[in-house]
Each structure stands twice: as structure tokens, then as C-alpha cells.
Amino acid sequence: METITIVGGGIAGLALAAALDPSRFHVTVYEKRPELPSVGTVLAMWPNAQRALARVGILAQAREVSPVLGSGSIRNAAGEPWMTVNGGELFGISRVDLLRLLESAVPRSVSRVTRHLRELPAEAGLVVGADGVHSAVRRQVWGAAVDARVTSCLALRGTIPAPVDPDAVGEYWGKGDLFGIAASPGGTNWYASWRSDLGPSGIDVELALEQARQRFAGHAPAIRQVLVATVPELSLAQRIWTTPPLRSYVRGAAVLVGDAAHAMTPNLGRGACESLVDAVTLADLLNTLPQERALAAYSRQRRLRTQALSRASAAMMRVALADRAQPLRDRLLSLARRRNARTAVGSGSGR
Ligand SMILES: Cc1cc2nc3c(=O)[nH]c(=O)nc-3n(C[C@H](O)[C@H](O)[C@H](O)COP(=O)(O)OP(=O)(O)OC[C@H]3O[C@@H](n4cnc5c(N)ncnc54)[C@H](O)[C@@H]3O)c2cc1C
Predict the structure, then answer these.
(1) 67 pocket-lining for ligand 1 (C-beta < 6 Å)
(2) CATH assignment at residue 236
(3) How many structural domains is the chain composed of?
(4) What's the pLDDT band for 347 if we cut at 50, 70, 90?
């Protein structure tokens, strides 16, 4: 039996523990959180993440507890849609449900330790850093030069028990801020972002909500209705952190997965999805190849793709939160909307 130590029992760590071959590996997962988080905002599951959920055997259960996201619009601050995106089969799973289902897929043979790991244990074997954006494994093995970097943007998000209004679904781009409304299990999921000097850590949710209510007061009525119904107990506030690009996700007997490898801004909704794909890719390679080859293949397969997504997410954040360039952005998007409408009418009349 080979030994694998997974630091972090979040999305990536649990998915990896669930997918590793228990007849080949002795796996230990260290997780500092003693129980599931109490606030579970929604994560959109893209097709590649759905395939990863199928690989660990929980896709059907995940679909069962999650609403299909359907179509949503990118809108201006007043709520007028610029473009509508059909979400197809994307569903939005609560983070709590996802963690619970991943937990249920982890075999009993995996040892679980509830502890904040500060030093790697002796005889750790292969060490997997699945410990998120502030990864201690990344710092210990790759050095402090690649520590996470704080962005100027705040992410405030939550759920309300009221059913989502289908006409309000989408993302509202204002001047230097954005607001999103989507379905959540049993209600409405919402999120907001803007440049803020709150934090970077220990942000008071009530204060962030107060700022949001002031900031979005002149925006679409749907946003104001959500913020009126929002309570701090069902909300989370944090600054957005990202990690600098690494030349490899592997160094010696250490490997990084999920946010520890590539924490990106949330604007494309891909971080958790790519964490799941990292986990099943690494597990399948380790299950079938000698360790050294498996690790090299993992880094090759995952690094360029995830780093391209990180760059695309950052670019999306700049467009969505445009400040000085907001009037130009809005004009371009309005033009694109008019052109699309003309094309639709033209093709509708058979020309
Ligand atoms: C505002 C916001 C919105 C987002 N929306 C989406 C979305 O819609 N779709 C999407 O796909 N992604 C989204 N993401 C990204 C997603 O949350 C992350 O990519 C995902 O959680 C990464 O999973 P992970 O397992 O790598 O890390 P984490 O979820 O951070 O898990 C790391 C785990 O390691 C544990 N840990 C850390 N250090 C130690 C230690 N030293 N010892 C023991 N345990 C430790 C932590 O307690 C935690 O449980 C969003 C992120 C943010 C900030």
C-alpha cells in the first residue's frame, strides 16, 4: 500500500479521497473544520464537473437536491437585459450539499483526522495540498513568494427562502459593481461584488450588507427586493483572493489540487468545478500509473487549462466591474443587443 496524505477535506480533497483506489492506497485526510459549514451558497456545476461527480458516483444525488439554473441574462444596472445565456443542464448545488455528498462517497478505509495541520507528519508519503487558497502546503513546499494575493474586490453572497423570480435571474453590471440572482435549493441565491476597503479578513457581514444596500439603492428593483429580504445569518462576506501561476502543480512528493493550485476570481463560476476535475484526474492517473508518471501527467493535463481559466475569470471581473470604462462597455453591449435583435428579426422573416 502506498501512503497518501491529503491536507484539506474540502471539495477537492474529499473528491480525491473518494476516487482513489482503496486497494492501492492508504489515504489520510486532515481537515480543520469539525463540521459542515452552516451557510451554503450555490455553486454552478458545469458539464466537466458533472462528469467528475458521475465518476465519484454522486451525480444523480447532486441533481436531485439542486435546481437546474436555466437561462439568465447579463443586464445593465437598471435590469435591462443585454444578452441571455441558456444554461442548458447546468445546475446549482449548495456548497453544504456538495460537501455532504462528497463525504458520503469517501470509503471507510480512508482515515479522517480533524486537525489544523501546521506541519507535515513524518511518513506522509505523497502529500496532496487540497487546503484552499491560503494553502500551507503550497507555502511550505513552493515558498512564500507564491502566497495568495488579495484583490481589491469584496464578494458578498447569500440565500433567501423566497422563490426566485425567473424574470430577475442573471447578472447586473453597474459602475464598478455587479449583482447576481439565481435559483438555489428552496429559494434564491444572490451575490454581489465591488471594490471595497473592508477586510481583508474578518469582515463584518452586517456592515457589508449595509454598504450593499446603499450601493445598490439606485439599481433594479429586483436587487433591492433581494437585499431587503436578506439576513446576515444566511450571508457571507469575504475579499477575493487569487494565487499566482505556478510552473508545475508538482514538486517532489507534493502535489496541489483545487484552489491551492489555482485560486481564481469567481466571475466564471469555475473554481469548484475545476477542483473536482483536478481531483478525479489525479486519482485516475495515480490509480493506473506509477506515481512519478502520474504526477507529471496530472500537472501537464491540468495546469495550462486551469491557468487559462484563471486569466479569463480575471478579465471577466475587469469587464463586469468596469468603472471609468463603464459607459463605453454599456454602449458596446447595447449595440450588440440591437444587432442581435435585428439579426433575429431578419432571419425570422426568411431573408
Ligand atoms: C465568492 C465566491 C463565489 C464562488 N462561486 C463559485 C461557483 O459558482 N462555481 C464554482 O465552481 N466555484 C465557485 N467559487 C470557487 C470555489 O468556492 C472554490 O474554487 C472551491 O471551494 C475550491 O475548493 P478546494 O477544495 O480547493 O478549497 P476549499 O473549498 O477552500 O477547501 C479547502 C479545505 O481545506 C481545509 N484546510 C485548509 N488549511 C488546512 C490545514 N492546514 N489543515 C487542515 N485543513 C485545512 C479548509 O478548512 C477547507 O475545508 C467561488 C468562490 C468564491 C470566493
Answers:
(1) no
(2) 3.50.50.60
(3) 1
(4) low
Look up the domain containing 218 and give its range.
2-320
> Residue 328: inside a domain, yes or no?
no
Asked whether the whole model's pTM tops 0.85, one would answer yes
**Has residue 271 been placed in a domain?**
yes
Q: Whose CA is nearest to atom 45 of ligand 1?
A: 8
- Inter-helix orientation angle 95-105/11-19, to 10°: 20
pLDDT at residue 41 in the model: 85
Q: How far apart are the first and last CA of the chain?
A: 68
The DSSP string of 297-325 is HHHHHHHHHHHHHHHHHHHHHHHHT-STT
Instruction: Evaluate whether residue 346 is within a structural domain.
Output: no
Residue 226 identity: V
**How far does the centroid of ligand 1 lie from the alpha carbon of residue 54, in Å?**
20
Collect all residues with Cβ–Cβ distance below 8 Å to 332 and sequence separation of at least 6.
none
- C-alpha 28/C-alpha 133 separation (Å) is 21
Rounded mean pLDDT, 93-106: 97
